Amino acid sequence: MFDREYEFNKIISAINDGVPLIVVTGIHRVGKTTLVKVLLNEINIPIIHTDARTQVRKFR
Question: Could you point out which of 16, 38, 54, 59 has its C-alpha 20 to 30 Å from the C-alpha of 44?
Fold first, then answer.
C-alpha cells in the first residue's frame, strides 16, 4: 500500500488499544484518505468519516 505500512500499523494499534478518536492529518495529496479507506476495508468496526472541507466553506 504505497509505503504506508508504518502508519497503517500505528492506526491499527491505536484501534486495538481502544483510542476513542483517531485523527489523520498531513499536507495535501500525501495519501491520507487512501490510507484510511484501505484500513477501513480491512477491519469491520463502525466508523464515522467526515470531510471538514465542506463544513468550512459553509461558514465563510
Answer: 54
Q: Nine-digit cell at 51?
A: 470531510
With cell 500499523, the residue in question is 9
What pTM was computed for the model? Answer: 0.70
**Distance separating alpha carbons of residues 8 and 48, to the nearest angstrom:** 18
Phi first, then psi: what are they for 36, rounded to 5°? Answer: -65, -40
Q: What string of pLDDT tens digits covers the 60 residues of the chain?
A: 568 899 999 999 999 999 999 999 999 899 998 999 889 888 887 777 777 776 655 555
